[in-house]
Amino acid sequence: SQKIEQNSEALNIQEGKTATLTCNYTNYSPAYLQWYRQDPGRGPVFLLLIRENEKEKRKERLKVTFDTTLKQSLFHITASQPADSATYLCALARSNDYKLSFGAGTTVTVRA
Amino acid sequence: DTGVSQNPRHKITKRGQNVTFRCDPISEHNRLYWYRQTLGQGPEFLTYFQNEAQLEKSRLLSDRFSAERPKGSFSTLEIQRTEQGDSAMYLCASSTDDRATGELFFGEGSRLTVL
B73: which DSSP letter? Predict the structure, then answer.
């Protein structure tokens, strides 16, 4: 069956450090992969999209890598700040599909 | 346009009652999605529309659930004879047809509690 797995443990890091989150998938051939941020009681907010033929994408302090051989994406938050504390969701879509399938998310807490 | 709007934000109901949620998408978006999210889990796909046509429904969507999008504008999600297992956050999202971005714009969700 198809699975999308993210870090099972919550991530607690010191302000200024880099947070690295993992998204692994099985039985999937995604056309692209997206990362969303979700604050408690709010809807997810889009952060980044990376396509199957791209290795890396950056946006400000965020970096995403995508390895279709390993079936894995890494999401990095550099120079983390307490305001980065949230749950981060990875989501995949197939080439013939508009809907997204989401992982369970990883909760990040950045300590001042 | 202020984004995707969902109403009500919170709904508490007794088991067996019917509930209806409304979603107003971003006006130029022709695709509209419904997801359900429970605590500690990611959003689970329920159904989606392109304009007024319902193109796909998840197996999660039992016969008690029905969604409509008349005239391709707002959408409603109705749950009949609610059960305690229906308690969740119901999220609506919208998008354009542009696969270059693929971004979904989510509303703030409608939280359902079934007593």
Answer: S
CB contact under 8 A, B102 and A98: yes
Q: Residue B75 class from Cβ within 10 Å (0-12 exposed, 13-18 middle, 19+ buried)? A: buried
Residue B105 Cα, gap to closest chain A Cα (Å): 7
Going from the C-alpha of A8 to that of each of A4, A5, A89, B19, B24, the distances in angstroms are: 11, 8, 12, 34, 34
Beta carbons of A45 and B101 less than 8 Å apart: no
Query: What pLDDT, in 10s, does the model give residues A45-60?
Result: 999 999 989 999 999 9
pLDDT above 60: residue A22: yes
- CA–CA–CA angle A25, B48, A95 (5° rounding): 45
**Interchain CB contact of B33 with A (< 8 Å):** yes
Mean pLDDT along residues A67-84: 96
Interface of A with B in 4-23 (CB under 8 A): 4
Q: In angstroms, rounded to a whole number, what is the distance separating the alpha carbons of residues A67 and A65? A: 7
pLDDT at B114: 98
Q: What is the mean pLDDT of residues A69-89?
A: 97
